[in-house]
Every structure is written in structure tokens, then in C-alpha cells.
Design a protein that fits this description.
This protein is of the alpha/beta class. Helix content is about 35%, strand content about 15%. The chain has 7 helices and 8 strands, in the order ββββααβαβαββααα. The structure holds flavin mononucleotide.
Length: about 220
């Protein structure tokens, strides 16, 4: 199943007024919508926005976004952003999501192509270590803050189009990395990196699944 990221303006023709942080899940026809909140790591569903600056700062958080998308569309909604364990999954279901998408939670799994420098940064990152920046690729993406993003950004108005900055930065980045420096390297991460599990993905998946069953039971008891 392929996935395309769009602004979502035309996805919500009904009563909804949601137009950022949305992606469509395609499989020949539209099968669902991914509602991606501000907390999410990496690039985001703001690719068609007119102003990068406003899109970077105005994207709603997952808690605010998901119920609005659920109300606005007729296909299943997958919640993404800031979800890393069973509590987050239970919360997303309580908001009306039909599924969840986790990214940051798995970045420390040995199966992930995360570099050692990136892993070290994730291991030491606090919940406020990331911000949304466009300096690395030309498009807004959440990464652990570093020298380049702090000194140039986090959001620059005048930048070559995506993905040209990646190539322009490559020599500087390679030289710095040889010296063990992460000053110019994008370490994509969401706000939940402290909850990432350093264990094989199957184990992490099993723990998260068991945690979500427990959290859903607790939530059901509370609302009973
Ligand atoms: C390392 C990394 C790279 C990502 N790259 C992209 C990307 O290129 N395009 C995109 O639309 N989303 C990208 N994402 C966002 C994920 O698809 C997903 O929505 C997000 O990870 C969910 O939020 P979480 O990171 O809080 O779990 C990336 C996320 C991570 C962690």
C-alpha cells in the first residue's frame, strides 16, 4: 500500500475545517487518512502550505487534530505524532482513531537504520530536545536541535527548494561526522524519544501491544 502526503484541503469536503498534518493511505482508492500532529518526528503533512513559517508553527497537536479529522472524513483515521506506548494508543482510540502510526518509538530498535551518532543523541534527548526546522532539507521536519538549526533556523524563509539543501550540506556534514560532531546532521525525532525502547522491534511491538490492551481496559473502567 503506497502512502502520499497531501495538505488534505480536498480530503475534508464535509463540515470539517482541517487542512494540515494530513496524509492519505492509498491502495487503488483512498482507504484512510493519517492525522499527524505537531509532536511527530521527521517531515510532516504540510508540503503544500503557502508559508513554511506559518505551517511550521500552526500545525495542531495530535490531541486536538484527531477528533476534528474523525468528524470531517468518512474513512478510517490513523493517529500519528507523540504516540509511543499503550497509553498513547488507548488515547488515540478514545479520540476516535481506527489505528495509530508510531515512528520515534522504534528508532532505537536494532532493526532501524538509525546511525550510532543519532542513537546517542536519542538516548540523551529530553522531551523538549526537538524542534521543527527546515534548514536540513528545505521542508519542515522535527529533529533534535543542533548547531546548524539553532544558528540558521529553526525556520529559514530563503532556502533552496526541497531537497537541495541536503546535497549542499553533505560535504560539511561528512567532515563533521568524521570528527564525531553532529553539528550539521539531522537527527529526526519526535517529542517522545525518551519513551523509545532499545530492544528488538518484535519485543517493543509486543510490549506496546500489551500496554495498549491494559490502557484500553483501564480507560473502559473509568468511563463505565
Ligand atoms: C526518522 C523519521 C523519519 C520520518 N520521515 C518522514 C518523511 O520523510 N515523510 C513524512 O511524511 N513523515 C516522516 N516521518 C513521520 C512518520 O511518518 C510518522 O508520522 C511519525 O513518526 C509519527 O510520530 P512519532 O514520531 O511521534 O511517532 C518520519 C518520522 C521519523 C521518526
Amino acid at each position: 500500500m503506497s502512502r502520499r502526503w497531501l495538505s488534505g484541503k480536498w480530503t475534508c469536503r464535509g463540515s470539517g475545517r482541517v487542512r494540515s498534518g494530513l496524509g492519505n493511505v492509498w491502495g487503488g482508492e483512498r482507504r484512510g487518512v493519517i492525522a499527524q500532529g505537531y509532536e511527530a518526528g521527521g517531515h510532516r503533512g504540510t508540503f503544500l502550505a503557502q508559508s513554511l513559517k506559518s505551517a511550521s508553527f500552526s500545525q495542531p497537536g495530535t490531541l486536538a487534530l484527531v477528533p476534528q479529522v474523525v468528524d470531517a472524513v468518512k474513512v478510517p483515521v490513523i493517529a500519528a505524532g507523540g504516540i509511543a506506548d499503550g497509553r498513547g494508543i488507548a488515547a488515540a482510540f478514545a479520540l476516535g482513531a481506527a489505528g495509530t502510526q508510531l515512528g520515534t518509538a522504534y528508532l532505537l530498535c536494532p532493526e532501524a537504520a538509525t546511525s550510532e551518532l543519532h542513537r546517542e543523541a536519542l538516548r540523551h534527548a529530553y522531551s523538549d530536545a526537538t524542534f521543527v526546522t527546515n534548514v536540513f532539507t528545505g521542508r519542515p521536519a522535527r529533529a533534535i536541535s543542533n548547531r546548524l538549526a539553532l544558528e540558521l533556523g529553526p525556520i529559514l524563509d530563503a532556502l533552496p527548494d526541497f531537497p537541495l539543501p541536503i546535497g549542499a550540506l553533505a560535504p560539511l556534514r561528512a567532515k563533521a561526522e568524521q570528527q564525531g560532531s553532529s553539528d550539521f546532521t539531522p537527527f529526526w525525532s519526535g517529542q517522545v524519544s525518551p519513551l523509545a525502547r532499545e530492544m528488538p522491534a518484535m519485543g517493543a511491538h509486543a510490549q506496546i501491544g500489551a500496554g495498549s490492551s491494559r490502557s484500553i481496559e483501564v480507560t473502559s473502567e473509568l468511563v463505565r
